[in-house]
Design brief:
- With 187 residues, the protein is mostly beta strands.
- Helix content is 2%, strand content 69%.
- It is built from 1 helix and 10 strands, in the order E-E-E-E-E-E-E-E-E-H-E.
- A 10-stranded antiparallel sheet has the order 1-2-3-4-5-6-7-8-9-10.
- Strand 5 and strand 6 form a beta hairpin.
- It is globular.
- The protein starts with a strand and ends in a 6-residue tail after the last strand.
């Protein structure tokens, strides 16, 4: 859109035909905007909205759900080697008369221990309005830089929250390995 703003659009459609047993279809449409100022890289932000439709006629009865997901995330470079990341995400689901709203608030600290090692810790708070519940969780991880702009991290997640809200890299409760890449204007 401009040197400081980027637009993201993604469409994903999947259809599984089970012949006489029915079919499963999933459609996901995402629209996002990223703010990454070229002249002052202290604060970056990303916002997105997504629509997900799922239909399954393989069981009896079949079902269809419509899901609306919105999120906004900011990354603040507090000082060299210290990033503070905040996120809010909300999810509204309708399914044959049932409606629910779930939201997530999370905060993450990423600290460079040395030039080649970093440590991350995240705290997450998940609220489900339909069942009036609030859950807490988080993760910790230790990362090592392999080459410039590429890190491998080992960590542990203390919860199993909704991946639609937490993000694509979320794996659920337990240990995990993650490979991170940092792309900049020169990449």
């Amino acid at each position: 859109l401009s040197p400081d703003y980027a637009l993201l659009f993604k469409e994903k459609y999947s259809l599984e035909d089970m012949r006489s047993a029915g079919e499963r279809a999933t459609n996901r449409t995402l629209l996002g905007v990223a703010y990454r100022p070229r002249d002052c890289d202290i604060f970056n932000a990303f916002g997105k909205v997504e629509y997900k439709h799922e239909k399954d006629s393989t069981g009896s009865p079949g079902y269809a759900t419509n899901t609306y997901i919105g999120s906004v995330e900011g990354v603040y470079q507090a000082r060299k080697g210290l990033q503070l990341i905040g996120k809010y995400a909300g999810k509204f689901v309708t399914d044959d008369g049932f409606r629910s709203y779930t939201d997530l608030v999370s905060g993450r600290v990423l600290y460079d221990i040395t030039e080649n090692y970093d440590f991350g810790a995240e705290y997450r708070l998940l609220s489900s309005r339909a069942v009036h519940s609030v859950l807490q969780g988080g993760s910790i991880e230790l990362g090592r830089r392999i080459i410039e702009g590429m890190w491998v991290s080992a960590g542990y997640s203390f919860d199993k929250f909704d991946s639609d809200l937490v993000g694509d890299s979320y794996q659920g409760r337990g240990p995990y390995l993650r490979l991170r890449f940092k792309f900049d204007e020169g990449t």
